[in-house]
Amino acid sequence: MKRFSTNRKKKFRRRLAACAIGGSAALSSAACYAANAFDNASDPVYADGWQAGDNGGFGFTPWNFDAGYIFGGTNYTYARAGFKKIDDGLQGGTQFSNPFNNIGRAWTIGTNVPSTPPNKDIDDDGAPHVGRGFAPLQVGERLRVVFDNPTKRQFFKGYFIRLNGGTGGVNGNICNAGQPCSFPLGTPKPKMSWDRFEYFSNGQWQVNDAASTASGVFDTDTAAAGALFQVTRTGADSYDLLVNSFGPGADFSASRTFSNAGAPVDWMEFVFFNPGSDTGTPPTTATDLYIRSMEISSVPEPATATLLLLATIGAAGKRCRRRHI
Fold this sequence. Notes:
The chain is 18% helix and 33% strand. It is built from three helices and 16 strands. Strand 2 (68-71) and strand 3 (74-77) form a beta hairpin. Helix 1 (2-33) packs across helix 3 (302-324).
């Protein structure tokens, strides 16, 4: 009888632990997804494709596709800066149902293959810049983006995710020489970026903010199953960066310092200047950049999170006792 009672206690402890783990996971999920801003490519706004001015979800300003080259006080605006499309996420074997998109329905950015012979009236005339604004990121808030990147490399080509600041939520894309792509409108300042630029780097990502750091994470790591890009503001000019490869690849995490001290972080931008898209059926090379979702959420303070977790564990324990004792 004593042995039976001991076994029952052990089983109960195991079940309670399982309930607590489940409760902790539920709490974590709830904390992550109590979003202050959220959008994804499955929003009905994008049912007819992805256009400048679209504004799905909530908490973000409309998409801005401004791109161009600023020279001598003139904005040479790009009329055909790559493509911005929706990939259906079904991996059906076509360009926009791409087997290299591992993250589901997604906003897709790429470079069109030049025509033969070249035709200046239809060929791309520059790199796409795609961005949108949000209320300034506060201390204790985190911004998350789920993305999947290409693995096609070409010297002096690349793509990146960049956070800019001081925009007021409008005209925040940055073109050459630090000038706003909507020149003369806009006052954006680069704050940080997660960069892929092929210059003897063999596919390695780099972080650029107040310093430049090689990450030890490669394009093949983040492309295997997609990845999470996460920035959590920790102070006036400090932040934590996490890039989590969903597949077996390497991850990166570090405490960092924003560039352009004092400028609020209020714009997210994607820039693409990589080799042309594989338009075959099916595509055989990963050439395009995919973004599934983006959100901004508040991170609970440690004391608050602990109290919530204890309450969750307590409730889980009561449920387990009612069910198993």
